[in-house]
Amino acid sequence: MRTTRTARDTTPEPTRTDRLLAALGGLVAAYVSLAVADLVASRVRPEAGPVLAIGDAVVDRTPAALKDWAIRTFGEADKAVLLLGILAVLAVIALGIGLLALRHRLLGAAAVGVFGLLGALGAVSRPDSDSALDAVPSLVGATAGAALLYVLTGLLRAPRAGGARTDRRRFLIVAASTGLAATGAAALGRTVASPAEEDAVASRAAVRLPRPDSPAPPVPAGAQLGVPGISPFVTPNRDFYRVDTALVVPKVDAGRWRLRLRGSGVREELTLTLGDLMARRTVERDITLACVSNEVGGPYVGNARWLGVSLADLLREAGVRPPSEGGPADQLVARSVDGMTIGTPVEEIMDGRDALLAFGMNGEPLPFTHGFPVRMIVPGLYGYVSACKWIEAIELTTFDAYDAYWVPRGWAARAPVKTQSRIDTPRPFGRPAAGTVMVAGVAWAQHRGIRRVEVRIDEGPWQDARLAAEDSRDTWRQWTYPWTATPGRHTLTVRATDATGTTQPERRTGTMPDGAQGWHSVVVTVEGP
Q1: CA dist 57 to 122, 232, 326, 501, Å?
Q2: Rg of the chain's alpha carbons, rounded to an integer?
Q3: What is the DSSP string of 476-523?
Q4: In whole angstroms, what is the distance from residue 96 CA to residue 91 CA?
Q5: pTM to 2 decimal places
Q6: 197-231 confidence digits (pLDDT tens)
Q7: Contact between 387 and 379 (Cβ < 8 Å)
Q8: Can the peptide bond before residue 513 be classed as cis, meaning omega within 30 degrees of 0?
Q9: With contact defined as beta carbons under 8 Å apart, do 182 and 145 qualify?
Q10: How far apart are CA 115 and CA 96, in angstroms?
């Protein structure tokens, strides 16, 4: 049976246009909510913004295989893709809330408030949150969004005494004006640094690196080969790879930073400032780092000159002994300011290699993206089990007692770097001219060193490449091979042998659980004369 409207019921039945406008209203309200929250977060803490709080929760709950796929597919843009994905999902939800508010005005506004509450809870539950103020951006933003949605839907639901066009025109005016204001607020939030960020930037600018007590040996003259297209021996800071879970790079005030050392076998707990570390005996070394997510031939490897202090010396002074000397702890758990935990074998840290607490990189204080004020460096281990950035705590424990962040997500607890080699030039699908073509690249086997690199053209015999001079066994080595290229399509393959005599296996494996392996190949087409 069809219902008829009485004379007293002056609220018009929503039309298709009303529903479209209501969905738009939900979208605008969500946009205003996020923009206001970001503006408030810029004065509290950028990490307290609702999108970042949600994003961190998503990162922590994403399966390791999916994370690895995102890194392979999107590279260092993976975080931007994640945030765009979150915004897309929120946009769809906002459209639905707008339609809900058209029928149930208060319920729609309350739904915006619920999302604000979730964002607030996410912000205060972040590992790096130390204040209830982190809830404020989400709550303020949600209040603004809920109020706007209530007003906008009121315009659509109002009796049409003045006519439908008048109400819709007012709706569009209010939506457009608040949207523009929100855009200004978002821009202001992006350009105005929080007081904490300003202090961190100023503290880094004030750092003066000490002269190393144990300087790195000069790089041998033959370590850098003059081949166009080859990776430079020293990777500039701006080009050094970055792989981590931080959606916003932590900016830590060096003056307030503290490193706490405690745990099993520690005679007395220590708390150190950056000044305390810099006053110790400083060590400078060239060390190559590699990410476990680096596929065969991938870009997530780089070489830099690091300045810091010996981590093994610090541990020994605190009473720590490695397991081989009867020490009770076999794992060092490093904790970052953003809550990341990284577990490193104590034996490897204390076996004589140059494990560092580094505060300098290529002659300058660590960039924020690479862990300022202090990070860990342990040659020969993949970064996820050794290279904690933004470190603030060290605890000595055992592998049986504690699993660091990546282990429950399917990665191995121990992960020495595998022997790898890569062709840098010619590039895949390149079209070099016939004649002599310089095939060149890098090979690495940190803390073992590279003994030999071989190149194969198509299915021909393996030929020895020329190795650049070795800086140390903890750095990569460049190599080059002069190829007499003939016209046509060719496959170039490289393999390396480390200083223990172990040659890379042919069969390719994926990055999980402890790093990829296999021969790197590129296909090129040589153009005739």
Answers
A1: 7, 38, 40, 45
A2: 29
A3: -EEEEEEEEE-SEEEEEEEEEEETTSPBPPSS-B-STTT--BS-EEEE
A4: 9
A5: 0.81
A6: 888 999 999 999 999 999 999 999 999 999 999 99
A7: no
A8: yes
A9: no
A10: 13
